[in-house]
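Open question from group meeting: does this chain pack into something compact, or does most of it stay loose? Before anyone orders reagents, we agreed to write out a predicted structure and look at it together. Recording both the input and the output here so the notebook holds the full record.
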Amino acid sequence: MYKYRSRIINILKKVFLLVVDKKLPPLTAPEIDLINEYKKKFKLLSSQVSLDRPDITDGWEENIKKLINHIENDDMRSFLRWEIIQKTMFDSFSPYLKFELNYLKQSRDWLETWDKAIEENISGYPIPFYLYQRSSGNLIHHAYHIAQFKQITDINIDKLQLILEFGGGYGSMCRLFNKLNFKGSYIIYDLEYFSLLQEYYLKSIIINNYHTKWEINNYYCISNFIKLKNKLDTLRPNQNQNTLFIATWSLSESPIEIRKLFESILQQFKFILIAYQSNYNGIDNNEYFNTIVKNMDNYEWINYKIEHIPNSYYLFGKLD
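Structure tokens returned:
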């Protein structure tokens, strides 16, 4: 049944793209330099870093191998259309995206905020969302998370000074916060291969002038825990800063050993935005995050089911 549904979706994608798709513009000299730079970086990383590690589960080991194969053989400008990216971090056609777009359109912030924030650019060659072709399904999905969080916590994004995202996909959430007038420092912590992909994507936005106000030194893609702690110490000179920790399904897909490392990190942030599935690889995530809530009782917590996504929940925290 799942394979049949996937085939139908793939056929619909192809028909839709035949009708609405735009060709990539000619390569520019800066783009060629950027692609060559990161193909070399990925090749060097592949020769130096083992995938046989406790922080890489079996499923993600296979995903990384497929990603490496694409980078070696395909056009990086269209990486958002690669099958492995579509499968793991770029949602194009899921039925729930219609619900999330409608939620954004019906909010009082639509014209002032979301309509502009979810406008896509050509970097990565994203598939347009069929109901709103100025955007993509993935960007709408990320905007929905932030809109939900804003509604619950009344957070003021342009007053935030530091954001740490655990597992940042290809860097889309970082890009979105920039479009929402976030001016602080943004750290993405991820596996080495995805850190490189995030660097490539964010730099491709900059060189194509899609974010002319973006300070290139304002974001950090980090894959080493010690380096992360050192960077946090540098960027957090006091405890009274407005800070936000984000993990949308990533923390709940990590081995327990990695989660333990980040439990102390969580307590350094004023706001916490987590999305998780109820079970993953035999781990009861409901029980795990309930324990987090109990141990961090100096926070005000809101935990609720995401009704339009099966077996998924939001956990929002705000330091009292």
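Observations to bring back to the group:
The CA atoms of residues 31 and 204 lie 7 Å apart.
The chain has a mean pLDDT of 91.
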